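note to self — DONT lose this again. spent like an hour looking for the file last time. sequence + predicted structure for the chain T wanted, 345 res
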Amino acid sequence: MVAASKRKLGGTAVAGHSRDKKQRCVTDFFSAPKSKTATAEQPCKQELQASGEAAVAAEQKGIMAVGVAAAYTDERSKENFPEEQRRLLALELETIDASWQRILQPEFTKHYFLQLKRFVLEEQARHTVFPPAEDIYQWTRLTPFSKVRVVIIGQDPYHNHNQAHGLAFSVRAPTPAPPSLRNIYKELRANYADFVADNAVGDLTPWATQGVLLLNTSLTVRAHCANSHSKKGWEPFTSRVVQLLVEDRRRTGQPLVFLLWGAHAAKLVDRVLGARVPDNFLVLRSVHPSPLSASRGFFGNFHFRKINDWLKARGQPMIDWSVAPNTALKEVLDANTEAGGASST
């Protein structure tokens, strides 16, 4: 079993307010209406004037939180970027794991991505944005490109405080598991009798360090505004992430699993994969684990056991899906120990 390593990264995004009616959230329709007087008193002009510097400061704070050891681009490489691009791409150049950065750098200078970064920086300056800047690319650091074995596609980061930390379906400790993750635990318990479904634990870092890429299609969100950063440019970027994985595994033959929960995930991966799925790929589908749909096909899909059976048949280590402290799936632990012993003889 691969030991899970957890990063404790601090930092908060810069909070602000907006009176732009086009950016109203779903929650606005369930709360008391704001008075026109209160709206008029919001210092929007002042925020806009300061937004550029404040946004850069927010991302610089995130870069410092990750630490010097995670500075993945050397100074000479940075000189290849014009000054404005170095400013816009500071977070990408400093916090994305080197294995991902090498293959993603061509994407950074495309028009859509630079426009996306301008939007995100503006949002960070005027509003609270999740996850904190230092966690946006945590998926790259916990699951390097060559180590990816399973891809689970999410949609939007959690949009409340102390939740999103750069991994789909996962929440930072000590936040308890949200409803969808609780349903995932229920299904795991049906797959493995000794899985401990501790709803007080919602951090899926142990999965990420074993090669499970937990990727949201939108990597940021405004606080309390679901889908507020969708269709702003993240989707082409994360689609490219999936495409690069598919291209590499087609070429190398390395096993790769896709877990497609819901139409959103299926649409993205189907578009990249096309009609022909290589023999070294496993694609599993079901409805989303949300309480709104889980009873219509998520429960009883046995995806977690199917993945491990498939990996084992190909001589690959199985995934220990345990998340509760000091627990392990005995069947998986024994199989991996036996396989490790056999390979060393």
